[in-house]
Amino acid sequence: MGTALRASGLRKEFKGFVAVGGVDLAVEEGTIHALIGPNGAGKTTCFNLLTKFLQPTAGTIVYRGRDITAMSPAGIARLGLVRSFQISAVFGDLSVLENVRVALQRKRGESFDFWRSERLLTRYDEEALGHIEAVGLADFVDHRAAELSYGRKRALEIATTLALDPDMLLLDEPMAGMAQADVERISALIRRIAANRTILMVEHNLSVVADLCDRITVLARGEILAEGDYATVAKDPAVIEAYIGSGHG
Predict the structure, then answer these.
(1) Is the pLDDT of residue 245 over 50?
(2) What does the DSSP 8-state code read for residue 104?
(3) Confidence class of residue 249 from pLDDT cuts 50, 70 and 90?
(4) If we measure between CA atoms, which residue out of 179, 199, 175, 183 comes closest to residue 80?
(5) Cα dist from 201 to 172, 213, 240, whole Å
(6) Counting runs of H as helices and runs of E as strands, what totals does the chain give?
(7) Are residues 41 and 220 in contact, defined by beta-carbon separation less than 8 angstroms?
(8) pLDDT tens per residue, range 77-87
């Protein structure tokens, strides 16, 4: 399979505080890999380093054999490494179709041209509708994004992310704040889109992680505590202690 994304000696300090300390991480091609840990474990910082929203104090990040340590988020997106956000990032006043069309304009070049005529934009409709159907929003094509439920907004965000045609998708707590029905819908969606992509996700919902993920890396205090499949990490005494000690069951 090979390694899609590799971090070596990844470290981030904030004015002397070590948020991430010497993390070595390998995400294999074609897998769903989870980054988990109790509050304050350094998951978000590590995720922001991997997606280039933070620059590491030390260490290297390699994507498919290419050193991306010094690249920008836009630069890695052009390589096919695309992230979604914990807070739904859609245009509330645009329809579901219009949101996905905006993302598809990326294929024209660098700009998102809101001022393009409707006639020119309709050439994206067929492809946009394909992404919308894939995430289960076919009945909501003309709805304003602001009118969607939280779970459906997250589904729309994934549709816009898919419109950028990523080879690897990085999901920041995709189930955060969702009702159980939405959790099940988004879990099924992630499983579908993972059929031909690599996925790295930060997720608090351990039942989702157990159900979806091939490999799990557990962080605590900015360092890797354990790694393996869910059965392996769930019975690791250090992992149990880290979660119970932080007030997590």
Answers:
(1) yes
(2) H
(3) very low
(4) 199
(5) 6, 9, 21
(6) 10, 10
(7) yes
(8) 889 999 876 45
Residue type, position 7, single letter: A
Coil, helix or strand at residue 163 = helix
More confident residue, 221 or 117: 221
Tokens of 223: 């360092």
Q: What residue ranges define each of the domains in the chain, with the CATH number in brackets?
A: 1-80+166-249 (3.40.50.300), 92-165 (no CATH)
How is residue 125 annotated by DSSP?
H
Closest CA to 171 of 212, 141, 143, 127: 212
Q: How far does Cα 74 stand from its chain's mean position?
A: 15
Q: Pairing mode, if any, of strands 215-220 and 32-36?
A: parallel
For 81-110, write each residue's pLDDT tens digit: 998 764 556 889 999 999 998 888 765 554
Radius of gyration of the chain (CA): 19
